[in-house]
Amino acid sequence: MEYNFRDIEKKWQQRWVAMQTYKVTEDKERRKFYVLNMFPYPSGAGLHVGHPLGYIASDIYARYKRLQGFNVLNPMGYDAYGLPAEQYAIQTGQHPAITTEANIARYREQLDKIGFSFDWSREVRTCDPQYYHWTQWAFQKMFGSFFSSPLPTSRKKGEEDCPKARPVEELVAYFEEHGTEGLEEFGVAQSEELSFTASEWKAYDEVQKQQVLMNYRIAYLGETMVNWCPELGTVLANDEVVDGVSERGGFPVVQKKMKQWCLRVSAYAQRLLDGLETIDWTESLKETQRNWIGRSEGAEMEFKVKDSEKSFTIFTTRADTIFGVTFMVLAPESELVKELTTPGQQAAVDEYLAYVKKRTERDRISDRKVTGVFSGSHAINPFTGQEIPIWISEYVLAGYGTGAIMAVPAHDSRDYAFARHFNLPIIPLIEGADVSHESFDAKEGTVMNSPADGTTALDGFSLNGLTVKEAITATKAFVASHNLGRVKVNFRLRDAIFSRQRYWGEPFPVYYKDGMPQMIPEECLPLELPDVDKFLPTETGEPPLGNARRWAWDTASCSVADCSTIDNKTVFPLELNTMPGFAGSSAYYLRYMDPHNDQALVSPEAGGYWQNVDLYVGGSEHATGHLIYSRFWNKFLFDLGVSRKEEPFQKLVNQGMIQGRSNFVYRIKDTNTFVSLGLKDQYDVTPLHVDVNIVSGDVLDIEAFKDWRPEYATAEFILEEGKYVCGWAVEKMSKSMFNVVNPDMIVEKFGADTLRLYEMFLGPVEQAKPWDTNGIDGSHRFLKKFWNMFWQKDAFAVTDDEPTAAEMKALHKLIKKVTEDIESFSYNTAIPAFMIATNELTQLKCQKRAVLEPIVVLIAPFAPHIAEELWQQLGHETSVCDAQWPAFEEKYLVEDTVKMMVAFNGKTRFSIDFPADADNATIEAAARSHELTPKYLEDKSIVKVIIVPKRMINIVMK
RNA sequence: GCGCUUGUGGUGGAAUUGGUAGACACGCCAGACUUAGGAUCUGGUGCCGCGAGGCGUGUAGGUUCGAGUCCUAUCAGGCGUACCA
Q1: Which of A143, A373, A810, A955 lies 20 to 30 angstroms, CA to CA, from A610?
Q2: Which nucleotide, over all strands, has the C1' atom closest to the CA of A399?
Q3: Does ipTM surpass 0.95 in this model?
C-alpha cells in the first residue's frame, strides 16, 4: 500500500474539525498544561517556512503532554493592529480592517494545512472590540491606580509590606490627612517629588487635584522627551527605535518634548528584576532583561553653587571618587541649564543648545564627538570646599539619574575624553593607576589623594589607604551622616510611552473635560474604533482619528456623539491618539483562558484553573519589548487579583530564526551570458540573486530560468560538466533575495508530516539555521519506510504475535529516547531515533501489534496525520490523541556486556567487553587473558585496569 | 566598549556529560532495476597514504590512564546593548 499522504492528511484535518478533537474545556479532574506561541502579526506576505518552526515545536510538546494525560490549552490568535496595515491603507486607501481580515484568512489557511492541535474556538484578535474591551479596561485600571507600599491611612489588618498597585482613592485619603508629609517612606512611585500640606490639598480645585494625581497614576499623561519619527508621524517606544532609526521602515528619529500617555513601568522595576529569579528562561534572555532594567546602586549628592543660594543634586555610583571631581556636567535638556548659565556665557550656551537640538538620535550614535560648553557657574565640592566649573554636554542624559553628574576624569572614560578635549585637570585617586593615556575605570586598588596632601576635608574625612570597595562604603556612610545626600537606587528602565499618533490601534477610552482626561464609564466599554475617510493626520496636525466624523463623548447619553453638535450639548472631545502595538499583546494569554467572557477579562474559575503559561515559545527579538511589557502588565493585573501568578510565562523557549539560503548566478559584465560557479573566477562577473525555487541542489534549472524573467529568455550559459552550478549564501529570508520558501509548496509536494519532521530535524529548536529544501527527501523517505512497516503488499499486516527480546529492546530504546528528547526540546535527535528503530524493526521483519502500536503513539506528536491513519487501521475508533503515552521499562534495555578500558604504563592500551554482571575476579581474568596479546608483550608491567562505567580496579601483572 | 553565545567532515548536525569522535540526514561515489529520471533499492564515503600506519573537534598550553567535553591563554563568527555616571 502506497503512503498517500495527500488523502490521509486531508481526511484527518477534516475529521479533527468535525469531531472538535482539539477543543478543550476546564476539567478539574485533570491537571492543566498551558502551551502558548507568540501570536503572529498577519502580514501581507503570508507564512514562509520559518514561521511554523516554533508552532511545530510547541505543537509537539502540547500533543505529548496530552498523551501523558494533561488537559492541554494550546490556543492561537492574531496580533492584528500594526503599522504595515496602516501604511498600506495610506498608500492605497484600502481599509486596514479589510487587508487584515484577508491576511488572517490566508494565514489560517496556511496554518490549517500543517496540522496543528490549536483550539480555534478560543481564537483572539487584538483588533476585535470584544478583545480590546479588556485592553481598554486594563488601561482604565492603571489610570485609577498608583504604586506603593500600604499607606497607613488605608492599610488593612495583617497586610504585608509589599509595594504594589493600589486604588488612587487610597492616596487621596492620605493627602486628606497628611498632604505629602512622610510619603517618601512608602516608596510611592511618582514622576517628580511634590510637596504640599493636607490643607493645601483640600484647598485645591478639581483640576488642580487631577493634575497632582497625574504625578502618581500608573497610566498617566506626561510631558516627556519622546522618540518622534517625523516620517511615520508618530512617537515610538525605546524598543521600537533601533540604531537611532525606526524599527519599522528605518526612518530617522528625533527627540521631542510632547504630552503623551505613559505607563509607569519603572515602578515595577525591582519586581521585574526579582521575578526573573523565579522563572525558567534562558540565562541569556534573563541577562538581557536585567541589563534593560539596569539597576544601579549609588548615592545622590547635593552640590551648592558658588555665590548663589542655588544647589543641585547629582547621582553617582562612585561616591568614593569625590576628591577627584574636577568639573560638573549638566544635560543640555536639564532645567538647571537656564538657572546656572551666567550672562557672560549665555550666547555660547544658546549656540550649543541649538546645535544639540538639531542633532538626531542617529547623529549622536554615529559620530560620537566630544562636545560641550562652559555654563559660567561653579559648584562647591561639599567635602573640600573647592570650586568646580559646571559644564553642559550632550553626553549626560536628561532622562537618567538627575540629569547632572560630577565628573571624575581619572576614573571614568567619558569624563576622561571630555577633560582631555577641553583641557580640564585630571586627578588620579588610585595608587599605581596610570592615567596619562586613558582612565582607570576598574573598581579596584588602593585609594590615594583623598584628600590630596595639603588639603583638608570636612571633619578630617579621608579615604587614603582604603580599598575602593571600603571607600565606597565609607563615603556613603559619611554622606548620610553629614546630610550631604542619600543612598539611592536608580534604574535604567523608563516608563513606556503609550500614545501613538496613528489610526490602526486601540482607541483610548478617554475624553477631555476642562483639559483634563476623564475615563469613559466602564459599562460603556468597549469604545470602538470609528471609521475615517483618511488615514493620515488631519490638516490641523491632529492624529488620524481627528478625521472621524462622529468622535466625541456625550455624557448625557453615554455614547459617541457627532462633533458638529459639540457646542450645544454636554459633549466632550475624545482622545485622538491610539494605543501602541504592545497594548494588545500584553495580556492576550489571559484572554485565551476565557475568550468569550463579556463580563470580565477572565473569570475567576477559568483564571484559577489555567493559572499561567507553562510553556511559551517565541523569538528572542521580543526580549526588551513584549516580554517586559507583558510581565509588567501581568504584575499589575496580579496586584488587582485578576491574574493568579505574578509571572505570566513560567518556561520560555526561544526558537531560532530560520534564515534563507539564497542562490546566485554570475553574469559576465555587460553581457547576457552566465557562467557556472566553478568557472566564474575566469571572468569579470556580477553575482545576481536567483529564485531558489528554480534551483535544485545548487544546480540551476536553465529552462525555468529563461522563463523566470523576460530579459533572461535569450540568456547564454557557460556550463561545467553540462550543469550550471549556482553559488549560495545564508541571508535573511525575504522576497528581495528570492529565497522565500512557502510551506504550502512543501506540503503539496511532500505532505504536512514530512514538513513537520523536517523542520524539527533541521537542528536544535533554539538555534538559528538556514533553510535548505534539499534535505527534505530524507524525512519523506523515512515516513514511507515507517508506513511500509505496517503493510504487506496492499494488506494491513499487523499481527498479535509475541515480540522477541530484540524487538522489545528496539521499542523501549525508542520510548526512552523520545520521551527524554521531547522533555528537553531535543526534537532533532528524537527523529533519528525513529529512523533507527524503523530500520531495526524492518530488518527484524517485525509487524507485531505489541511493538508497532506504541510506536504509532510515540510518533503522533511529530507526524499526527500518519499516526491517526495507522491508529485507525490498528482498529481503534477514537483519535490517537486520546491514547496513552507508552511507559518505558528498564528491563528491556539491560546490556549484557560492558566496555572496559585497559591501561598500563600510563597509557590506555585497548578495550574489551565483559559481562555486565561480572565481579572483580572475572574482570581481572578477562584483563589477564589479554595480557598475552603479542602486541603488548613488551609492556610486561601492567599498572592498572580501568573499568567503565565508574569502577576502577588496580591489577598488578607481570 | 560591555553583556551573552557558538566554533566538530563537502553541508545540517550527533556524541549516554571525562570513555574507541563524526549517530541520523543531505551531498558525493559505485552497483542494481529502468526507454528515461530531480524515481526506487544496495553498498561505500573525516583527512593523508598503494599499504602498514599516521593525523584529526578554531589555535596554543595544562590536568588525566584517557579531553570535543574540565582548566588557562588566544583567535574568529553570531546575537543583544549602547555615552545609564
Answers
A1: A143
A2: B84
A3: no
